[in-house]
Structure formats: C-alpha cells, structure tokens
C-alpha cells in the first residue's frame, strides 16, 4: 500500500470512528454528515466520495462496529484468562456496553441485521467465525469441569442468548452489577448448586 492509499484508508477509518462514536451517543437519525465531518476532521465531500450517502456510511459503520466487537472477543478467547472469567466477560461486559448505546442506534443495528433476512455480514460473521470459537470455548469449559458433558452446545448458546437479551432490556445495569458473581454461579449450577456426582 503506497502513501496515498494509506492516507485514504486512515481518513476512511477516521470517518468510521467518528460516525460510530456519534451514532452510539445520539443515534443514526440525529447525527448529520456535517457533525461527522467535523469530528473526523474531513470535509463533507470526502465523506460522500468515500461512502456515497449517509445510509451507506451507516451500513459500513455497522460492519466496522461488528468487526471491533469480534476483535475483542478473539482477544478474550485467545487469552490465558480462566474459563469462568471468559464466560463472565461474554455475558456481562458486552451487555454493559449495550446499555450505554443510544436506543435508536441499537434499533438501527437490529434492523440492519433482520432486514436482510439474516443473509448478511453479521450472520456470516456469526456462522463462520463466532460459532466455531464458542464451540471451542465450551470444549475448554468441559475439559476444566465447568460444563456438564450431557448439555449440548446448542442449549448453552440459547441460554447465553436468553441471559443477554434480558440484560439488554431497559436500564438493568445497576441492578445486575452487584449480582455478577451470583448470576455467574446461577448460570453454571442453577439454583440447586453444583450437580451431585
């Protein structure tokens, strides 16, 4: 990549970062191209040259955001953190972030995901990258004795999804934080505690 291409790529990334910051705070509709240009320190013309329209920019921001989130997951999965810590982060950390995202941006994100009938970048990322890594994580959990070998990966994924969806409804962050440890134990062992041998 020559100097021109590097500068072009950097400008594009600056625009995506600025857009993501503003969209997460105010939502897609309330943010103007003028505000994005100012935050990214570029002209509006540059934004239109790179992205064509605000709608195309918003679509690219969703992909940019998904890539950022996934990069965080990959670092977590590759880390030497104990299995329980990894699961805690998967369930709680991203949920805490979700509770600090503008509701309209979250709705736009979900619309982007569902409008294309699941046949899109997010679905592809989940199927090709996330799912195999989660399967590896569950294997690690079984090997360390945290996951019952009789419980399927599908059931675990559904359980995590139920947990996360509840925690993303409304402002429950403050209610959840004091119970993180207890909820993690409840997640693994249920209300009866550890399964008896």
Automatic annotation (TrEMBL):
Alphabetical list of InterPro entries matching this protein: Homeodomain-like_sf (IPR009057), HTH-type_Tx_Regulator (IPR050624), HTH_TetR (IPR001647), YfiR_C (IPR041612)
Residues in the signal sequence: none
Entry's Gene Ontology molecular function annotations: DNA binding
Ranges for domain HTH tetR-type: 9-69
Pfam families per the UniProt record, alphabetical: TetR_C_17, TetR_N
Protein name: TetR/AcrR family transcriptional regulator
Source superkingdom: Bacteria
UniProt keyword list: DNA-binding, Repressor
Translocase keyword on record: no
DNA-binding region: 32-51
């Amino acid at each position: 990549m020559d100097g021109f291409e590097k500068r072009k790529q950097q400008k594009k990334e600056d625009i995506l970062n600025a857009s993501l910051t503003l969209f997460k705070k105010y939502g897609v509709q309330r943010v103007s191209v003028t505000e994005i240009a100012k935050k990214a320190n570029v002209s509006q013309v540059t934004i239109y040259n790179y992205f064509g329209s605000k709608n195309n920019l918003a679509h690219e921001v969703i992909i940019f955001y998904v890539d950022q989130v996934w990069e965080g997951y990959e670092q977590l999965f590759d880390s030497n953190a104990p299995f329980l810590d990894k699961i805690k982060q998967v369930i709680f950390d991203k949920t805490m972030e979700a509770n600090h995202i503008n509701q309209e941006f979250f709705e736009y994100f979900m619309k982007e995901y569902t409008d294309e009938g699941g046949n899109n970048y997010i679905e592809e990322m989940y199927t090709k990258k996330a799912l195999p890594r989660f399967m590896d994580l569950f294997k690690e959990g079984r090997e360390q004795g945290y996951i019952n070998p009789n419980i399927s990966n599908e059931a675990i994924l559904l359980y995590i999804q139920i947990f996360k969806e509840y925690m993303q409804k409304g402002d429950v962050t403050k209610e959840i934080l004091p119970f993180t440890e207890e909820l993690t134990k409840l997640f693994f062992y249920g209300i009866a505690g550890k399964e008896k041998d």
